[in-house]
Specification:
Elements (H helix, E strand, L loop, with lengths): L1 H16 L1 H21 L11 H7 L8 H8 L2 H24 L3 H19 L8 H19 L6 H7 L3 H4 L3 H4 L8 H27 L14 E10 L2 E10 L6 E10 L4 E5 L1 H5 L6 E3 L6 E2 L4 E3 L4 E7 L10 E8 L4 E7 L1
Antiparallel strand pairs: 1-2, 2-8, 3-4, 3-7, 3-9, 5-8, 6-7, 9-10
């Protein structure tokens, strides 16, 4: 009896010590629901800040789940449902985690949501490792509170104090709170092993996304980078695809120049910022939810956007066969090139 009382006291104190961690972590997930549906409607596909477009930003450098993201952003209806369900789950998990109701089940939810954030967007963050930190700390918090439970300041404890039949079930301690039926020696091994694995995930992802363990540090969220593919000339039509794979997610790359030159550097075709601001939308074939589109002073290419661009010009109709160079110029002065042979 004494041993049982000591165990109960130990878990109660552990839940007390992790109270602030539970409340703050729970709010980080509930606040996503609050921001998207209460403060603003970010589930409107036609609205500013649509969460599906932000999800598209994860695509270029996601780890392990890129095919899932690509499927979603190429199927807008499925994407909307996924974002709606994801938002509701975040709201439920975050709220119940703060309230301490079915705390251990919610901690599994926190762990899973954090893992998704880490793998999908752990590479994002302009001034620091924003998304990586959110993801890895969420994983650690979910793991920790699964073992500590929620302690006295929780609905789990309140339900238990009422001696409800629900709380007397063997499964309740695994989904709620209370003394885990695991021998102390074995519990030490499980927790140590889990912590070591989480540390390994931390180091691996930190290195993969940012080079943060050894070698050269890098931040893919600072400068825009565009990949050019499928470039070709057919009669009087120049076509090529653009895919924005790096740079800040909060604003696009502003394309102010498209130039085609021959092998001697002579300009064959040139479009400046005014031409690109008036670029015909019919000549832009967007593949994903994040869309390339003409802006006020340039052609705007959001992070994660992929599109086929088509330019028709009479100067291309009589070009001799040979090597040509396509150059794209960003407003920052960065340029990207692609060789065209026809």
């Amino acid at each position: 009896m004494n041993n049982n009382n000591n165990n109960a006291s130990s878990f109660m104190i552990a839940g007390l010590f992790t109270l602030a961690l539970r409340l703050v972590t729970g709010w980080t997930y509930f606040s996503a629901f609050w921001r998207r549906l209460v403060l603003e409607n970010k589930l409107d596909p036609g609205g500013t800040g649509y969460v599906g477009e932000k999800f598209n930003h994860f695509l270029p450098n996601a780890l392990g789940i890129k095919p899932i993201i690509e499927y979603m952003v190429t199927h807008p209806e499925s994407l909307w449902w996924a974002m709606a369900v994801f938002t509701i789950i975040e709201g439920i998990v975050g709220l119940l985690f703060m309230l301490g109701l079915f705390t251990r089940l919610m901690s599994i939810g926190v762990f899973s949501l954090a893992m998704g954030i880490l793998l999908g967007s752990g590479w994002l963050g302009t001034t620091c490792l924003d998304e990586w930190q959110i993801g890895i700390l969420g994983i650690a918090a979910g793991f920790t509170i699964f073992f500590s439970g929620s302690g006295k300041h929780s609905l789990d404890y309140w339900l238990g104090s009422k001696s409800l039949k629900l709380t007397q079930q063997k499964w309740f301690v695994w989904l709620g709170s209370g003394v885990l039926p695991i021998q102390t020696k074995r519990l030490h091994k499980i927790v140590f092993s889990g912590a070591a694995i989480i540390l390994g995930i931390s180091l691996l992802t930190n290195q993969y996304f940012h080079g943060g363990v050894w070698g050269t540090l890098h931040n893919k969220s600072v400068k825009p980078k565009i990949e050019i593919a499928e470039a070709g000339i057919d009669n009087d039509i120049l076509s090529f695809s653009v895919f924005r794979v790096e740079g800040a997610d909060v604003y696009g790359s502003f394309l102010i120049g498209i130039t085609l030159t021959d092998i001697n550097g002579n300009i064959i075709l040139e479009k400046d910022n005014r031409d690109l601001a008036a670029f015909p939308e019919n000549n832009i074939a967007n593949k994903y939810v994040a869309s390339v589109k003409p802006g006020k002073h340039s052609l705007v290419i959001p992070l994660g956007a992929r599109a086929q661009l088509t330019i028709r010009d009479n100067t291309l109709s009589d070009l001799p066969a040979g090597n040509y160079m396509l150059t794209l110029t960003d407003i920052s002065g960065i340029t990207w090139t692609k060789s065209i042979v026809f």
